[in-house]
Amino acid sequence: MHSNQSAESAFVFTANQKVVSLLVQEAGFQSAQASALDALADILGLYLERLLAITHSYADLANRSRPNTHDLAHSLADQGVALASLQQYVERFKNTPMAKAASSTTLRTEQSQTSTVEYIPQFLPSEDEDEDEDLEETTELPTYVPPHLPRFPSKHSFRQTPVYIQRPDDPQKVRELNSQQSRTVEENLKRLMSSENQLARRSTEKRSANGYDEEDEDAVAASMMMMPIVNYESAMQRRKRVAKQPEYGNDIRNQEASKRAKSNVGTVQS
């Protein structure tokens, strides 16, 4: 770890020395002592570090992870460097022999063949989309979309479509569906009761371990062995019969009331 840091610092220090030597030569000096170049290289490194730190501070203040040219302009203004004077210096430096020699040498750049863009699988097309619309999705992106952005998702992922629930019209199918739902409810209730029985059995085992009578344990164990029978359909039929009973009672009461009324009418006439 220390070796990497020392290598990086040595590389940066060497680069600063080269920059300082060019600036000294541009200023008109023919030669310079090594100690003076080292001191100027250290000062240049500290200046650049401070400039970059201020630039990152402006980026953090704007809630950005990377600084931009505006952050650099603000940091240069804090250091007392005007952009107009910097532009004049660049224009003047272009006409120097060093700038012409540097511009004559071209750097070779190799473009990587492997793409760094993450592969995104093709989205499933929606059922209500036509083939022409699917083809439009796979074509080139519009001109205002940067090329590094992924393709648009399928339209079914953001399009709002109404949902119509299809119910059977055949009475036989309706009865079969109702019976199936009743069996499902009955099975769910059985599972619920079985889980409750398991919890109760565990509690009885803990109670027996704590020292209860054997008779109590036998009674509780026998009660736990009895699986409660849940019949959802019979319960529904029982409810229907109970609901019909008041209507039958009301008919009997109405008949008795009519008989009493007739008898009262007969006594009055007599």
Fold topology:
Blueprint: H1 2-27, H2 34-61, H3 69-78, H4 83-94, H5 97-104, H6 131-138, H7 171-210, H8 214-225, H9 232-269
How would you describe this structure to a colleague?
The chain has 270 residues and is mostly helical. The protein has three domains: 2-101, Orthogonal Bundle (Histone, subunit A); 169-230; 241-270. It contains nine helices and no strands. It has helices at residues 2-27, 34-61, 69-78, 83-94, 97-104, 131-138, 171-210, 214-225, 232-269. It starts with a helix and ends with a helix. The relative contact order is 0.03.
Count of runs of 4 or more consecutive helical residues: 9
CATH class annotation of the largest domain: Mainly Alpha
- Rg estimate, integer Å: 46 Å
DSSP summary, beta strand count: 0
Number of domains: 3
Identify low-pLDDT runs.
none
GO molecular function: protein heterodimerization activity
Pfam families: Bromo_TP, TAF8_C
Biased composition (Acidic residues): 126-139
Subcellular location: Nucleus
Concise summary:
The protein is mainly alpha-helical and 270 residues long. The protein has three domains: 2-101, Histone, subunit A; 169-230; 241-270. Helix content is 67%, strand content 0%.
